Amino acid sequence: MEHFAPRVGIVTGGAHGIGRALAAEVVARGGLAVLADRDDEGARTTAAELTALGPGRAVAEHLDVADSAAVQALVEKVAAEHGRLDLMANNAGILFSGPLEEFTDHHWSTAIDVNLRGVVAGTRAAYAVMAQQESRRGRPAGVILNTGSLAGLIPAPRMAPYTSTKWAVVGFSQAVRHEAASHGIQVNVLCPGYVDTKLIDEVFEPTASYVRGSFRRNTKALQPRLLTPEVVARKAFSGIEKDKPVIIVGGFAHLSARAMGVAPAVVRAGSRLQAIREERQSRKGA
Ligand SMILES: NC(=O)c1ccc[n+]([C@@H]2O[C@H](COP(=O)([O-])OP(=O)(O)OC[C@H]3O[C@@H](n4cnc5c(N)ncnc54)[C@H](O)[C@@H]3O)[C@@H](O)[C@H]2O)c1
Q1: Ligand 1 close to Cβ of residue 149 (< 6 A)
Q2: Is 115 within 8 Å of 93 (Cβ atoms)?
Q3: How many domains does the chain have?
Q4: Is 194 close to ligand 1, i.e. is its CB under 6 Å away?
Q5: How far, in Å, are 64, 67, 231, 243 from residue 3 at the CA level?
Q6: DSSP 220-236
Q7: Is the whole model's pTM more than 0.70, yes or no?
Q8: Is residue 111 assigned to a domain?
Q9: Average pLDDT of each block of 10 consecutive residues along the chain (286 residues)?
Q10: Which protein residue's CA is at the shortest distance from atom 2 of ligand 1?
Q11: CATH number at residue 44
Q12: Quick one: pLDDT at residue 139?
C-alpha cells in the first residue's frame, strides 16, 4: 500500500499518548478519527485539538475496552453512521509494575480484561464489519492495528501481568493475521520500546513495594532516550503501508528483538540482571 489514509478510524485510548498520536495521523491524512477512551474529558479535548489541526476531524466517544459488548456496539455504530471502517487501532492499555508475589487476582483480571480482552473485542468487532467491506485498488478491506509492546517480545521482568498480556496480544495478532488475509483484512501489531507518555508514571494500583517514579527511572536506565508518541505513530503508519506483521519501533526495541532471535541467552541474562537490580532498588526504597 503506497499511502494509508483511512477515511474512518477508531483509536481506543485515543485521548492520550500513542493513541492520540495515531489519531493525529488519521486526521492529518484527511480522515475521521474516533477517539474511544474512558477518559471523556481528555478525549473531548484531544478531539477538539486534532480537529483544529485538520484537514480531517476527530470525535470523542466514551468506551471502556474491558466491556466487550460496548466495544462491539461502538464499532457497529461508527460503521453504520459513516458507511465503513478503515482502521481499528486497539491501543488502550495500562501498566503493571512489581514483583510477582505482590500482584493480586484483581491486578491479573484487570490486566487481562483491558490489555488482552480489550484488544480481542476490538479485533472481533472490526473483523465482522471489515469482512463485509470490499478491498479496492489493491488496498485491504480494513486494517486492524493492535498495540503490543517490546514487553511482548522479550521476557520483561517485574511486570508479569503486563508482559503476559502483551505476549498474548503479539501472539493473537500474528495468528489472526493469517485468517484475516482471506477476508482482505490486514492485521499488524505495534511493538514500541519505551515511549514518553503518562503510562510509565501511572502504574495501575501500585503494589506495596512500588516506589513512585521508579518505573520511569528504571526505563531510562535501559533506554535513556524515550521515544515520542509522534515517532511511534509515524512508524506505525509506515509499518502498515509496508504490511509488516510486527512493527517494532526504536533502536533499543530493534536490538532487543533481534537479540531475542539470534542470542536469546543474552536477553535472558539481561532480564535476570534487571530483575536483581530492580529488586535491590525497591528494597532500598530508591
Ligand atoms: N509508553 C510506553 O512506553 C509504551 C511502550 C510500548 C507499548 N505501549 C502501549 O501503548 C498503548 C498506549 O499507551 P500510552 O503509553 O500511550 O499510555 P497513555 O496512558 O498515555 O494512554 C493510554 C490511553 O488509554 C486509555 N485507557 C486506559 N484504559 C482504558 C480502558 N479500559 N478503556 C478505554 N481507554 C482506556 C487512557 O485513558 C489513555 O487515554 C498501551 O497499550 C501500552 O501498553 C506503551
Answers
A1: yes
A2: yes
A3: 1
A4: yes
A5: 31, 33, 17, 12
A6: HHH-SSPBPHHHHHHHH
A7: yes
A8: yes
A9: 94 98 98 98 98 98 98 98 98 97 98 98 98 86 98 97 98 97 96 97 94 91 95 98 98 97 95 92 77
A10: 195
A11: 3.40.50.720
A12: 87
